[in-house]
Design a protein that fits this description.
Layout: H1 7-36, E1 51-57, E2 60-66, H2 86-96, E3 102-103, E4 109-112
Antiparallel strand pairs: 1-2, 2-4, 3-4
């Protein structure tokens, strides 16, 4: 059933969304700095770049491996992210720095801004 909300409630929801997105971007920057000291990072701006990619998605931060099709890393077996130990290394580094990463269905690590130790 649809229940309309007031203008004030709409404004509060929009403000909360903006703050959550801003916090996730800030968290993504913090995660990027932690991991960059230890692993090769992909540039989100360069799709031809292989490495660990950190992205803010809503109130979560996603950490995954990016290897474009046709790049040497895309055909590596075992894959560097899951079988090669990069995901485990990233998870251990994040846990050491007080984050609580979880493995998403697509294999990426996710960190929710509400789950920081």
């Amino acid at each position: 059933m649809f229940h309309p909300i007031s203008t004030l409630e709409t404004q509060r929801l929009m403000q909360s969304l903006r703050e959550g997105t801003s916090t996730a971007r800030q968290l993504a920057g913090d995660v990027q700095r932690v991991l960059a000291r230890h692993v090769r990072m992909a540039s989100g701006d360069e799709p031809a770049d292989s490495g660990v990619l950190v992205e803010a998605q809503g109130s979560e931060v996603s950490v995954s491996w990016q290897a474009p099709a046709g790049s040497p890393e895309s055909g590596w077996r075992p894959g560097p992210w899951e079988e090669g130990g990069l995901r485990s290394l990233c998870a251990a580094l994040l846990i050491h720095h007080g984050y609580e990463p979880a493995v998403a269905q697509d294999g990426a690590l996710t960190i929710n801004r509400n789950e920081i130790s």
